[in-house]
Specification:
GO molecular function, one term: alanyl aminopeptidase activity
Number of domains: 2
Strand content: 25-35%
Distance between the termini: 82 Å
CATH architecture of the largest domain: Orthogonal Bundle
EC number: 3.4.11.2
Keywords: Hydrolase, Metal-binding, Metalloprotease, Protease, Signal, Zinc
Number of strands: 26
Largest sheet: 8 strands, mixed
Structural class: alpha+beta
Family: Belongs to the peptidase M1 family.
CATH topology of the largest domain: Neutral Protease, domain 2
Enzyme class: hydrolase
Shape: globular
């Protein structure tokens, strides 16, 4: 048989063509999670399953030293990857080996391991860091709030950058162990269950554990001098509330509101289904902020929220978020209606429960409060844009959307949807269109037009009329003000928060 001579160059080309696509060079992970509202928030190429944070904080000078250990799994072959972080980094290790690192942009930490990472590989990342969080600004703001006796990390949609490196987007949720050493006489408050408290050589170390998936912006840390009140619910769920010792006259209103958290949570479980986490509570530090935030298991409240006295409606709002926003998170920040519309509607249902105005009456009065030519009606709750993410329309028109849905499909299906959605989506994230599809599935009705009218049309819809006996109830020309209106408005002022409110944006974040 005659042999054919093949030149070496041809052999090289043949071998190159034979290499499978999977053997291509590993690529860097994306510097963002793909969210159109915040393109550089989060990162691509990996998924974090757990954060272990070991911190030391000195309130006198706002000095934070930390070691963050992240357990993750790669979702592609990686030559390098990013974390979202804004403090000073002194050392990074990947799988025990020193890794090169550099900063990019305002909050990107680029990490290059000493060898590429395979797809599906389990990875341990250790970052050692330090800084003065209150002096670190990103895009002109900080989410670390200095207090007379310490500091607090609480904001939306970003808060983690100032105290731990993370994949900062709600689509990558993880469990947490947070261990914080502070000077004796000072407390450290975080999410979940307090697992340890040990003192040594003038420092006390507090250990906190969150054992259910938690988005990064829902992780919180507060250091200061607190009065801590511990209890448990009737079914044994641990309750821990904390109040700064220098709240002054706001202390009474704060306690009269937050100490009802267990009662509110029990009631909400009847509306949304079983409480999804292993602890409840709330905390009020002495910040100069004016907003509240649904930090998981233990909402953050500004003391100003209670300057007029009790504000239980605000507690209802933040605890409702434990289901809508925390257990089921937004897939993208455009889906914010799934958080705010539902938490606002929970306040309306609480009013109904208390006999101080039905949800229909509050919807009627809210609708009449905004004239047809008001800019309010031009904001689309289903996709409001980043500049209007926390606009009143997302809350109020968002809640009216749910009243319109309730009127259309009836109470049985409506409340079945509120519970069933939580059961089906618990621990994950979702889009508005997922909820629309689920509501159609449960009710057996085509609802796309209803949701389009209320969530996406930049104009005033017809008011959501209640139905009864096959006819629509006539509406008074001037709806009567519900008894709960002032409480709901007080809660509304108490939820104005975040970088837009505190740092000069057009609209405040509302919670």
């Amino acid at each position: 048989m005659r042999q054919r001579f093949i030149a070496p160059a041809a052999v090289a080309v043949t071998l190159l063509l034979a290499i499978p696509a999977s053997a291509a060079e590993p690529a860097p992970g994306a510097p963002g999670a793909g969210d159109p509202y915040y393109p550089d928030y989060g990162n691509g190429g990996y998924d974090v399953s757990h954060y272990d944070l070991r911190l030391k904080y000195q309130p006198e000078n706002d000095r934070l030293d930390g070691t963050a250990t992240l357990l993750a799994t790669t979702t592609q072959e990686l030559s390098r990857f990013n974390l979202d972080f804004a403090l000073d980094v002194r050392d990074v290790r990947v799988n025990g080996r020193k890794a090169a690192f550099a900063t990019s942009g305002a909050h990107e930490l680029e990490i290059t391991p000493d060898r590429p990472l395979a797809k599906g590989q389990r990875v341990t990342v250790v970052v050692r860091y330090s800084g003065t969080p209150s002096k670190v600004e990103v895009n002109g703001f900080t989410s670390w709030h200095r207090t007379p006796d310490g500091g607090v990390a609480a904001n939306e949609p970003e808060a983690a950058w100032w105290w731990f490196p993370s994949n900062d987007h709600p689509t990558d949720k993880a469990t947490y162990d947070v261990s914080v050493a502070v000077p004796d006489g000072t407390q450290a408050i975080s999410n979940g269950v307090l697992t340890s408290e040990r003192s040594q050589a003038g420092w006390t170390r507090f250990g906190w554990r969150s054992d259910q998936p938690q988005a990064t912006y829902l992780a919180t840390l507060a250091v200061g001098k607190f009065d801590i009140v511990k209890d448990e619910t009737s079914d044994g769920l641990p309750v821990l509330n904390a109040y700064s010792k220098d709240l002054g006259e706001n202390d009474r209103g704060a306690r009269a509101s937050i100490e009802r958290t267990a009662e509110v949570t029990e009631w909400l479980a009847g509306v949304f289904g079983p409480y999804p986490f292993n602890a409840i509570g709330g905390y009020v530090p002495n910040t100069d902020t004016g907003y509240a935030l649904e930090t998981q298991t233990r909402p953050f409240y500004s003391q100003r929220s209670f300057s007029a006295g009790t504000n239980v409606s605000l507690v209802v709002h933040e605890m409702a978020h434990q289901w809508y926003g925390d257990s089921v998170s937004v897939h993208g920040w455009r889906d914010i209606w799934l958080n705010e519309g539902f938490a606002t509607y929970a306040q309306w249902l609480w009013s109904e429960e208390q006999g101080e105005g039905t949800a229909q009456e509050i919807s009627d009065y809210t609708y009449a409060s905004y004239p047809a030519d008001d800019e309010f009606w031009t904001v689309k709750p289903g996709d409001p844009g980043p500049e209007n993410q926390f606009h009143d329309a997302v809350y109020d028109r968002g809640a009216m959307t749910l009243q319109a849905l309730r009127n259309e499909i009836g109470d049985d299906d409506f409340f079945a949807i509120l519970k069933g959605w939580q059961d089906e989506q618990a621990g994950g994230d979702a889009e508005v269109r997922d909820f629309v599809a689920y509501a159609e599935q449960v009710s057996g009705k085509p609802l796309a037009a209803l949701f389009d009218t209320w969530l996406y049309e930049p104009s005033r819809p017809d008011a959501p009329a209640a139905k009864g006996g096959g006819t629509e109830r006539a509406k008074p020309a001037r709806p009567e003000k519900p008894q709960s209106w002032s409480d709901i408005q007080a809660a509304k002022h108490g939820r104005e928060h975040g970088k837009h409110a505190e740092h000069g944006g057009e609209h405040g974040h509302g919670h």
